[in-house]
Amino acid sequence: xxxxxxxxxxxxxxxxxxxxxxxxxxxxxxxxxSVDGVYSVFPTHDPEGFMVYCDLxxxxxxxxxxxxxxxxxxxxxxxxxxxxxGFGTTTGEHWLGLHxxxxxxxxxxxxLRIDMADFDNATAFACYSxxxxxxxxxxxxxxxxxxxxxxxxxxxxxxxxxxxxxxxxTKDRDxxxxxxxxxxxxxxxxxYRNCHTSNLNGQYLRGGHASYADGVEWSSWTEVxxxxxxxxxxxxxxxxxxxx
Length: 244
Known about the structure:
By secondary structure, the protein is α+β, with helices and mostly antiparallel strands. It is built from 6 helices and 11 strands.
């Protein structure tokens, strides 16, 4: 199964340029562009810019994609530097990078949307009206790129609020509140507490598996009795600037 969220994919060689220097995908949308694709953005705190995938059609458009899981082609069990800097292919499975997410969201005013699909292509979503990484931090890496989320709505249930305020943990940098390294134990990387109710960077598991917690998980949706035998979960994470 793969994600079916009304998102139009583009070939990897397609690169679209907006006419002005947008700070994020909401600026791309505001410039009059309406085609989903890869765009260059230039956040206030990173004027050199970088490329992101913009969804300009889902739920009004203007969404900046920060993570995509859809086919298991990319290894997400990686260390701190990979998660800090980002990895993958912008038009396919990827993680944008903690520092890039920080430069985009550090001042707040962003909404987070997470779209999910299971093995049978059942879909759900979760939105958070307040989202940022490393809010107001002077040294975000030293601070662990802490997560801020609040204001849940959606159909998937809330599995992220318990992670708000947590630092990001990878297999080689333990910043959670567990005696163990949650990233190493559950083979992922996330804003773990002790340990998680969501694990969207976990293993992309195929086929039945007895242990839920090391897969791509959103517990309020994946643990319900009708869904607990599903083999994997596809996920997209994206955010939107509420005050462009």
